Amino acid sequence: MSEPAITLSRELAMQLLKHAQTSPQARVCGLVLGTDAQAREIVHLRNQAESPELHHAIDAQEFARAVSSAQTRGLQPLAVYHSHPDSPPMPDDDDRAASPDSTLRLLVISLNIKGVLEMRAFTPAQDQLRETPVQIFL
What we know:
single chain, alpha/beta, Cytidine Deaminase, domain 2, 6-stranded mixed sheet, two-stranded parallel sheet, 8 strands, globular, JAB_dom_prok
């Protein structure tokens, strides 16, 4: 069964890109929150990796607080996002392990762009990640 596309407004897509651009030499990370597959909010989380230019790590307690806060407002986590400052938006070997919830989709934002925002989503399926569509609307 295929997962529904993650749907982002242009405004939320730009918030993701802006967050990634605030740290062009290091990875940023956070949560995409929403209802069903419709994104409603972005939550920035601190990257606690020892080498943030190469990896990302999210504190489990900070993640749990963000999820709990979202749920009190009727939102659910749709994806864990992070940026790749100088590589395509494809998850690397450590990306799946870096997520505090291995059942959530991964959204990877690339800053290795030539004028076009590039982000891709991936859904965990057994021992692999399957690409999931991302739709951006005005």
